[in-house]
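This follows on from our talk about sequence and fold. Can you supply me with one protein entry, sequence and fold together? Could you add the entry underneath, on a fresh line?
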Amino acid sequence: MSAGGRMQVSPPSKKSETDTIKRVPCETPPFTVGELKKAIPPHCFKRSIPRSFSYLIWDIIIASCFYYVATTYFPLLPHPLSYFAWPLYWACQGCVLTGVWVIAHECGHHAFSDYQWLDDTVGLIFHSFLLVPYFSWKYSHRRHHSNTGSLERDGVFVPKKKSDIKWYGKYLNNPLGRTVMLTVQFTLGWPLCLAFNVSGRPYDGGFACHFHPNAPIYNDRERLQIYISDAGILAVCYGLYRYAAVQGVASMVCFYGVPLLIVNGFLVLITYLQHTHPSLPHYDSSEWDWLRGALATVDRDYGILNKVFHNITDTHVAHHLFSTMPHYHAMEATKAIKPILGEYYQFDGTPVVKAMWREAKECIYVEPDRQGEKKGVFWYNNKL
């Protein structure tokens, strides 16, 4: 156990590239969710208010220190040095604020405390600060967790079938095209997801927008809280307007806007790599079930950023199985369930940039299983 109380998980043995992209089993697992839960120490499911707040407060302190250094000392730097100082600030502040985003995400899963009102209050404040409509995202993200791996009902990076690839797809399947697509995905992907449900499932009956209370994403009981989410976003936007009026637009962009772009980029990158991998199956309604869908995700290694991102990167399989578990117990839980999961557990330690490029190249669309008789199981392919 580390000084911070986290169980240290031994790094998986290094796999060859062939082993890394080897397909995971798609048959019904020989274990149940109950058996997995029994393997996890009971304390891993306990949520601690002091401990949860300690991670949030630590992130706020670090982010505040970065802001103080930038506002106090950057103006004193000789002109050439500012070209190095600002990118360093943007990168560091963006990483820390991504950690804040993750904690607010935990609030949406009711993993922050035993009190739903406290989780929603903390989540609303800090997701709104990062221009995320808290309740809107909370409910759409819950549907993702309920339908992971389903081609019809999942809401996050739902792959296309070959027949749905647009005519221009083959012209983008080259290094230049992939570079353009990845650039757009990591800069505009998150706002487009919120505003137009890009990469999500299609909905009948209206405009699927996270800011629209009457969007088909939500049911009647949830609509009032969508207004509250919108009010939170408007309040932060007004605060940014007032800041820009006093300090200038350039100051607002440098201190807040660019780090927010980094947060949005990391959010899309992390989610993309968690749910896009040559070894992972997707299912149509004839084969899908919740457990197989929850296992259709992969843990990744972001190095030191695993800690900065509160291990959402390298414990995502456990998170999908037990989403109300606090992040500070997820590593211990992962270690406990790996022997039971066996080949159903997927970890890929490929460097993130290399993995991002490989997935963009190899995971273009999905097609039915050709190696077996399961026509409702789909695997990635890239032959256009």
In short: Residues 79-108 form the longest helix (30 residues). The chain has 15 helices and five strands. Residues 33-381 form one domain. The two ends are 49 Å apart (CA to CA).
